Amino acid sequence: MDTLPVKEIRSGRAERPTQDAKETASILIVGGGAAGITVAAELRRHRPDLSVTLVEPSETHSYQPGWTLVGAGVFTLAETIRREETLIPQGVAWIRGKVSAFFPDENQVELEDGRRVAYRYLVVCPGLKLDWDKIQGLREALGSNGVCSNYSADTVEYTWRCLQDFQGGQALFTQPAMPIKCAGAPQKIMYLAADHWRRRGLSRKAEIEFCLAGDVLFGVPFFVPPLKAAVDEYGIHLRYKHNLKAVHGASRTAYFTVTDGDGKTSEVEKRFDVMHVTPPQVAPDFVRSSPLANAAGWIDVNAATLQHTQYNNVFSLGDVAGTTNAKTAAAVRLQAPTVVKNLLSAIDGKPLEAAYDGYGSCPLTTAYGKVVLAEFTYGGKVTPTFPLDPRKPRRSAWLLKTKFLPFMYWKMMLRGSEFDVKHKERRFAEAYRA
Ligand SMILES: Cc1cc2nc3c(=O)[nH]c(=O)nc-3n(C[C@H](O)[C@H](O)[C@H](O)COP(=O)(O)OP(=O)(O)OC[C@H]3O[C@@H](n4cnc5c(N)ncnc54)[C@H](O)[C@@H]3O)c2cc1C
Fold it and tell me: Contacts by 96-101 with C-beta closer than 8 Å and gap 24+?
C-alpha cells in the first residue's frame, strides 16, 4: 500500500472504494504502450518514492511507427518488438491483465478476471481499437490473395511479400474515415510500394488507386502539394469518398460505398491484385462504455492539461485521448511530460500549469530515401523543428525516420528522458516548388 494521504485525492467524488478492492495503487496506469511506459518512466524519474502500477496484458511491446518500414522491407518485424518486462521501469508494479471497466466514482478499475484495483490517480492510455470487423470479410481475407495491412504485427510482414510478389495489375490502397493513428500511414506505404515497383520496372504495368473515405489527401493543407506531386509522379489515381465496406479474398474483389457531390451513395466493385487495407479505428469498447468517455467514445480530457473534464484525479494521453491532435507516438512524446507535471501538481495541491499544444508529427515516406517531415500543432499550425521548408522530401528526414527516431523511442522516450528539440511556428513561401 502506498503512503499518500487519502485527502490528497481531488476528485471531489467518492474517496474510498465502495466495493473492496484487492489491490491499491497510488498511480494506476492503464496500458503499457508508447504512452504508458513513457509516463511510468518519467514518474519514476521525478518521484521515485511514488507507488506506480501498470496494467498491460501483452508480453511484448511494438514500435508501431516502424511498421511502415517493415511493410516496405527496410526493417524486420523483430527490430520493432521488445519484451514488455524489459521496458517497465524498475520499481513499477506490473499487473499482467486487461482492464474491462472503469468505476471513477469509486476510484477503481475492474480487470477481465473480475479483480478490482483501487487507485488515487489514474492515467488512461490503452490505445485504440482496430475495427477489422467493420469491413465484411476482411478478417478472413487478410494474409492471402494479396490482402495486407501494416496496421498489425500479424499482417505487416505479408505486406512486404505482396510488394515483392506483385508482377503488375491493380493495386488498391484504402484509408477509412478519420481519426486513425498516424493519418499518413495509408499513403506512406503506397508511395514506397510505387517506388519499389518503379525500381523493378513495373511502373507501366501497375495501376495504383488510393481509395479514401474522406475528401482530402492530408488533413493539414500545407502538406498537400508535395504529396500531390508524389501522387502525380507515380501516376496514382485518387478516389475520394470511397469507403471500403467488404472484401472477398478468393475473387480478389473489394466493395466500396461511394458518395457523390450531391451526397448520394452507390456501391462500387473493384478487382485487385494487391490491396493494402487500413482498418477503421474507434475507442476501445471498455472505454467507450465508461463514464470517462465523451460522445465519440474517447476519453474526455482538457486539450491542454490532459486532465479529465469531470474527474480531477484522471488523466489521459495517447491514441485514446479525446483530443484533436494527430494520433502519433510523436504526440505521446510531448503529452507524457504534460501529464506527469500536471499529475504531480495535482498531488501537491498546486494549479496545473503544463499545457500540451497539440504537437504531432508524420514522417511521410514519399520514396525510399525521401521523407516529407510534417510537424504541426492544434488547428494545423505548421511547427517544424528545423528551419527548412518541411514540404520538401529530404534524405535527412529519411535518416531521422529510419535511424534517429527509433533510437530516441527506445533509448530516450521509454526511459523517461524528456528530451525535446523545440518545434515552433515558422512561415514559408506560399507556393510549393518541387
Ligand atoms: C502502421 C503505423 C504507422 C505509424 N507511424 C507512426 C509514425 O511514423 N510516427 C508516429 O509518431 N506514430 C506513428 N504511429 C502511431 C503510434 O504508433 C501510436 O500513435 C502510438 O503507439 C500510441 O501510443 P499509445 O500508448 O496510445 O497506444 P499503443 O502504443 O497502441 O499502446 C496501447 C497499449 O495498451 C494496451 N491495452 C490495450 N487494451 C488494454 C486493456 N484493456 N487494459 C490494459 N492495457 C490495454 C495494449 O496492449 C498496448 O500495449 C503509427 C502506427 C501504425 C499502426
Answer: 96/56, 96/57, 96/59, 97/55, 97/57, 98/55, 98/57, 99/30, 99/55, 99/126, 99/286, 100/286, 101/286, 101/289, 101/290
pLDDT at 21: 61
Parallel, antiparallel or unpaired: strands 370-377 and 206-212: unpaired
**28 vs 5, higher pLDDT:** 28
> What's the confidence (pLDDT) of residue 31?
98
Residue 226 near ligand 1, beta carbon < 6 Å: no
pLDDT over threshold 60, residue 17: no
Q: How far apart are CA 346 and CA 350, in angstroms?
A: 6
> pLDDT for 260-316, tens place per residue?
999 999 999 999 999 999 999 999 999 999 999 999 999 999 999 999 999 999 999
| Closest to 416 in 3D by CA, of 91, 96, 2 | 91
Q: Which residues contact 62 (CB under 8 A, 6 or more apart)?
A: 80, 81, 153
Residue 127 alpha carbon to ligand 1 centre in Å: 5
Q: Which domains does the chain have, with CATH numbers?
A: 6-128+283-348 (3.50.50.60), 131-280 (3.50.50.60), 361-415 (no CATH)
Q: What is the mean pLDDT of residues 142-165?
A: 98
Residue 19: phi, psi to the nearest 5? -115, 140
Between the CA of 232 and the centroid of ligand 1 the distance, in Å, is 32
Q: How far apart are CA 9 and CA 16, in angstroms?
A: 10
What average pLDDT does the segment 356-373 reach? Answer: 98
Nearest CA to ligand 1 atom 40: 98
* Ligand 1 atom nearest residue 331's Cα: 11
Q: 66 CB less than 6 Å from ligand 1? A: no
pLDDT at 192: 98
**Which of 192, 183, 181 is CA-nearest to residue 371?**
192
For 277-346, list the strands marked E by DSSP: 281-282, 314-316
Cα(284) to ligand 1 centroid in Å equals 12
Q: Distances from the Cα of 264 to the Cαs of 246, 255, 260, in angstroms?
A: 19, 16, 5
CB-side exposure of 185: number of CA atoms within 13 Å?
28
